[in-house]
């Protein structure tokens, strides 16, 4: 084809009166071949640039999706902080309610103390004080530990979000480098980004699982709190019923007007439970009082056993939370 073109161009040039030598013709033909080769090379480079542009666009879309997931995670952290604040408010309201109930029961006990014997007053006052103080202390300790644990989890989630942000910045840096590297290096960096994407998705699933477990634990704790309040109300009703149905002949006038001060002195000095029971056993004047003392003693023992079991459950939950955080 090239020789035919040269033969055809020879006569034309002769007719036009400007003859070309063979060297000039070969030189022009060589330049034409070089231009064609350069054209093919430019076409190949254009195809490579288009493929690199498509890969960089995919990486940019992945980074955009990752930013959206990070924003969703930050909203989830905000919800956890709101839940912690709600639990703190609930704890303060419950403490106020327990204090109000304690004050009302103490007032009723002071009214009844002038109509009952001094030893029975000491027992009831000690029982009420111990039960309500134990419930308030338990609820305060339980919710304070739970709030601390939730704060620790929120701080860890913030740290993880910061790490995810740094990983996102690294991914964007890789995207910038993709535009300068050749096809092989860009494919390697894309595979690295895909592996990082899979790892981050797995971590996000683990965080969501821990969040659901924390919500379930909070629901369980609220149910236990309602059960404790129900038990306290039942004990208050039993005490009020005994006060209403108390026999009139069993009351003993106090020996001195300083009986209530003696009761407060005994409780303030922190006497042992066995000594208080020994004081109550001295007065066996009425069968109704003995029966009520037995019932109240059983209730006190049940309350103590339940408090011990709840403390064990709290320790177990805290240990499981620590183990999960270590993992």
UniProtKB/TrEMBL annotation:
<feature type="transmembrane region" description="Helical">
    <location>
        <begin position="122"/>
        <end position="143"/>
    </location>
</feature>
<feature type="coiled-coil region">
    <location>
        <begin position="293"/>
        <end position="320"/>
    </location>
</feature>
<protein>
    <submittedName>
        <fullName>HOOK domain-containing protein</fullName>
    </submittedName>
</protein>
<dbReference type="GO" id="GO:0098837">
    <property type="term" value="C:postsynaptic recycling endosome"/>
</dbReference>
<keyword id="KW-0812">Transmembrane</keyword>
<dbReference type="GO" id="GO:1905244">
    <property type="term" value="P:regulation of modification of synaptic structure"/>
</dbReference>
<feature type="coiled-coil region">
    <location>
        <begin position="147"/>
        <end position="238"/>
    </location>
</feature>
<dbReference type="GO" id="GO:0099158">
    <property type="term" value="P:regulation of recycling endosome localization within postsynapse"/>
</dbReference>
<keyword id="KW-1133">Transmembrane helix</keyword>
<keyword id="KW-0472">Membrane</keyword>
<keyword id="KW-0175">Coiled coil</keyword>
<dbReference type="GO" id="GO:0098978">
    <property type="term" value="C:glutamatergic synapse"/>
</dbReference>
<dbReference type="GO" id="GO:0099152">
    <property type="term" value="P:regulation of neurotransmitter receptor transport, endosome to postsynaptic membrane"/>
</dbReference>
<dbReference type="InterPro" id="IPR026204">
    <property type="entry name" value="GRIPAP1"/>
</dbReference>
<dbReference type="GO" id="GO:0098887">
    <property type="term" value="P:neurotransmitter receptor transport, endosome to postsynaptic membrane"/>
</dbReference>
<feature type="coiled-coil region">
    <location>
        <begin position="25"/>
        <end position="52"/>
    </location>
</feature>
<dbReference type="GO" id="GO:0098998">
    <property type="term" value="C:extrinsic component of postsynaptic early endosome membrane"/>
</dbReference>
């Amino acid at each position: 084809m090239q020789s035919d073109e040269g033969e055809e161009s020879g006569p034309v040039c002769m007719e036009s009166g400007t003859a070309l030598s063979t060297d000039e013709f070969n030189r022009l033909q060589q330049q034409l071949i070089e231009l064609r080769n350069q054209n093919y090379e430019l076409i190949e480079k254009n195809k490579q640039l288009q493929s690199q542009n498509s890969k960089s666009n995919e990486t940019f879309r992945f980074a955009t999706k990752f930013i959206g997931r990070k924003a969703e995670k930050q909203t989830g952290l905000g919800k956890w902080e709101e839940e912690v604040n709600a639990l703190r408010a609930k704890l303060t309201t419950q403490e106020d309610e327990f204090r109000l109930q304690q004050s009302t029961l103490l007032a009723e006990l002071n009214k009844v103390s002038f109509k009952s014997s001094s030893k029975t007053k000491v027992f009831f006052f000690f029982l009420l004080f111990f039960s309500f103080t134990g419930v308030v202390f338990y609820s305060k300790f339980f919710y304070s530990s739970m709030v601390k644990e939730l704060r620790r989890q929120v701080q860890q989630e913030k740290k993880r979000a910061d790490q995810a942000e740094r990983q996102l910045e690294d991914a964007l840096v890789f995207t910038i480098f993709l535009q300068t590297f050749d096809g092989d290096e860009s494919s390697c960096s894309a595979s690295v980004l895909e592996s990082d994407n899979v790892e981050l998705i797995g971590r996000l699933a683990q965080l969501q699982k821990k969040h659901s477990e924390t919500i379930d634990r909070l629901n369980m704790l609220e149910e236990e709190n309602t059960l404790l309040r129900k038990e306290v109300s039942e004990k208050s009703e039993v005490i009020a019923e005994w006060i209403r149905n108390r026999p009139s002949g069993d009351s003993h006038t106090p020996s001195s007007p300083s009986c209530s001060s003696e009761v407060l002195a005994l409780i303030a000095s922190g006497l042992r439970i066995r000594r208080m029971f020994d004081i109550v056993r001295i007065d066996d004047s009425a069968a109704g009082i003995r029966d009520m003392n037995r019932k109240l003693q059983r209730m006190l023992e049940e309350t103590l056993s339940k408090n011990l079991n709840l403390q064990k459950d709290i320790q177990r939950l805290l240990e499981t939370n620590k183990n999960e955080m270590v993992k």
